[in-house]
Amino acid sequence: xxxxxxxxxxxxxxxxxxxxxxxxxxxxKEGRIIGVQGILSHNHLVEATLGQxxxxxxxxxxxxxxxxxxxxxxxxxxxxxxxxxxxF
Length: 88
Prior knowledge:
single chain, 88 residues, three-stranded antiparallel beta sheet, 28% strand
């Protein structure tokens, strides 16, 4: 597992287990990376939290779609009222 990839996630899934990792590069005097120091931990709370974030995201997307639909519907009704008012 490469730990210093750009954009690599902090939580990874390996063999259906979620692992939380914290890593830092070990550099020589010239600034070149010569090693990595890190900690990997399996935590059931990480798994539960990721599930809750997914559920919350789904709910928020659903609510945003509902609000946007109400706004568009209201705008169309107002436009119809204004057009009917001009015709009257």
